[in-house]
Write a structure and sequence with these properties.
This protein is mainly α and 142 residues long. It has 4 helices and no strands. This is Succinate dehydrogenase / fumarate reductase cytochrome b subunit.
Length: 142
C-alpha cells in the first residue's frame, strides 16, 4: 500500500473526535451559564444569612445576655465587609430575578437575554457604587 501524501486522509489516518454533540445543549461559559451560577450562589448565601439572622434574633428569648454578645460581634469591621457582600448578593439576586421573569413571561425575552444580563450587571454596579463608599465610611469612620 503506498504511503499517503501530505494533505490526504485515508480511513486509517483519520482522527476520531468522538460523538458529535447537538449544538446549543451545553453552556460554554457564556452569559446564561454565569447568570445561572451567580443566581444559585447568591440565593444559597441569602438563605444561610436569613437562617443565621432568625436564629440570632430568636436568641433574645432564650438569653438576652447571649443575644447582646452575638450582636456585639456584628459591630466588627469584618462583619461590616460581610454586609457589603450581603447587599451585593441581594442586589444581584433581585435584578437577575427580574431578568428571569422577563425571559419567562415576555415573548421576546429569550432573544434579549444576553443584553438583559449586561443590564443586570450595570444596575448591580450602580447599586454597589452607591452603597460601598457609605458603608466603608460607616465601618472605618469611627
Amino acid at each position: 500500500m503506498p504511503e499517503p501524501t501530505a494533505g490526504t486522509l485515508t480511513p486509517s489516518t483519520r482522527v476520531s473526535r468522538g460523538p458529535k454533540r447537538p449544538a446549543g445543549t451545553l453552556y460554554r461559559g457564556r452569559e446564561g451559564m454565569w447568570s445561572w451560577v451567580l443566581h444559585r450562589i447568591t440565593g444559597v448565601a441569602i438563605f444561610f444569612f436569613l437562617l443565621v439572622h432568625i436564629l440570632d434574633t430568636a436568641l433574645v428569648r432564650v438569653s438576652p445576655e447571649a443575644y447582646n454578645a452575638v450582636i456585639g460581634t456584628y459591630q466588627t469591621p469584618i462583619m461590616g465587609l460581610g454586609e457589603i457582600a450581603l447587599v451585593g448578593a441581594i442586589g444581584f439576586h433581585a435584578f437577575n430575578g427580574i431578568r428571569i421573569i422577563l425571559i419567562d413571561f415576555w415573548r421576546k425575552g429569550a432573544k434579549y437575554q444576553k443584553v438583559m444580563f449586561y443590564i443586570v450587571i450595570g444596575l448591580w454596579v450602580v447599586l454597589m457604587i452607591g452603597f460601598v463608599p457609605r458603608q466603608l465610611i460607616h465601618i472605618f469612620g469611627h
